[in-house]
Write a structure and sequence with these properties.
Blueprint: E1 4-9, H1 16-27, E2 35-40, H2 43-53, E3 59-62, H3 79-84, E4 89-92, H4 95-100, H5 105-117, E5 121-126, H6 130-134, H7 138-150, H8 155-159, E6 162-165, H9 179-197, H10 199-204, E7 206-210, H11 215-222, E8 229-232, H12 239-246
Parallel strand pairs: 1-2, 1-8, 2-3, 3-4, 4-5, 5-6, 6-7, 7-8
The structure holds phosphoenolpyruvate (PEP).
Phosphoenolpyruvate binds at residues 9, 166, 171-172, 210-213, 231-235.
Length: 249
């Protein structure tokens, strides 16, 4: 059985008091036992939030990390440090990191390796731009992102990864991929994995959809056979919306 996961990417939003208030409101709500919920706030909140999450079913995620364990990398945070404060998931290769920080899949593969080495779970993001989709390059774009970012891993390592398909044109735009468009790419990702690693790995890896997921479209998306949950941006900043999405399976 593939794990159902909903992860909230808070991005660079909410100061400490605002973040605590949102987290308290989420923790005060009923979230279904069959969904693994992950909260990924800014780095600075992680340690304090871990205390608030102890004895709850929610997991803590970070939005990025560096590929080295330590060293002279001013401003960076390592997977080893994230592990030491109780982080379990690390979002890697988000399209905003690819666009604004010039990250590419090969570079991200080193982060993936380091995150896995420390027993954390990468949430590896892939997705095409609008131009790539219009030019019919979306399948190849996704195939190369998956291959270059993840195919250095062995079977067991890949099974510890979560993949998030996030069409760039749907992130923060209010425009969602239709369930058919999303399902088509999710099935393609699973097929690409099956060709390299076999059906057991492909059938057991969780593939999340991200891009303007809201309570109003989550049920339809999560009903698709190859969609195992969501990576949520804007709607994760509102407790009621986030919890409704978590309960949409
Ligand atoms: C995201 O940034 O990963 C995302 C999916 O954002 P939104 O839900 O706001 O489109």
């Amino acid at each position: 059985m593939r794990q159902k996961i909903v992860a909230g990417n808070w991005k660079m939003n909410l100061d400490l008091n605002e973040g605590k208030e949102l987290l308290i409101n989420i923790l005060d709500s009923d979230i279904s036992d069959n969904t693994q919920c992950v909260i990924a706030p800014p780095y600075i909140h992680l340690s304090g939030f871990k205390q608030m999450l102890s004895h709850t079913k929610l997991s803590l995620g970070s939005q990025n990390c560096h590929q080295q364990d330590s060293g002279a990398y001013t401003g960076e945070v390592s997977a080893a440090m994230l592990k030491s404060v109780g982080v379990e998931y690390v979002i890697l290769g988000h399209s905003e990191r690819r666009e604004y920080f010039n990250e590419d899949s090969l570079g991200i593969s080193f982060k993936v390796n380091n995150v896995i080495k420390h027993g954390l779970r990468p949430i590896y993001c892939c997705g095409e731009t609008l131009t790539q989709r219009k030019e019919g390059e979306h399948f190849e774009t996704i195939r190369v992102q998956i291959k270059n970012g993840l195919f250095q891993l062995n079977e067991m390592e890949l099974l510890n990864c979560v993949i998030a398909y996030e069409p760039v044109w749907a992130i923060g735009t209010g425009e969602t991929a239709s369930p058919e468009q999303a399902q088509e790419i999710h099935a393609f990702i699973r097929k690409t994995i099956a060709q390299e690693y076999g059906d057991m790995v492909a059938d057991n890896i969780s593939i999340l959809y991200g891009g303007s997921v809201k309570p109003g479209n989550a049920v339809e998306l999560f009903n698709c056979p190859d969609i195992d949950g969501g990576l949520i941006g804007g709607a994760a900043l509102d407790a009621e919306s986030f919890v409704a999405i978590c309960n949409s399976f």
